[in-house]
Amino acid sequence: MITLAEVTVPMVDCILRSRQMWRKYLAYLDGRSAQAGGVVVLPVRGGRGSSVERVALARAAVSTVLDLVDEALAELPAEVQQVVRLVYELGMSYRDAADLLKRKVARKKWGHTKSSIGRYVDLARRHVLSRLSLLDESILRDFWDRIGTLCGEDH
Questions:
Q1: Domain-by-domain residue ranges, the chain?
Q2: Distance (Å, rounded) from C-alpha 136 to C-alpha 91?
Q3: For the whole model, what pTM was predicted?
């Protein structure tokens, strides 16, 4: 069972890097997507509750964590949000993100450095971790169980 104490920086990085892809995955777990040509895969192995119920609970756990992360990021200053997009969604290195932002703010008296990008990323990580601390540990466990399944890990 995963606890908040076991949520690490690499786990937060994984969420920040993969959350857009996981949102697309959630769309495929939605019954309405099946009507639009998507596929809802129901588990066939035994377990507690019906297959539909288990899919709904898994979807709810993943959605809860992703919604919380999105809210946490929206609370950050715009500049930090921009850095998160560059580093996690576009996969830029700290140096490349700093260079891009330096060019965008060339008229200002200050610029970005690799270190300042690192500070912004660290701020975002810490804020996301603090918001994750508000979740019930069972939601975190269900989230990581489902994400592990997506990544092909056995539990």
A1: 4-150
A2: 30
A3: 0.78
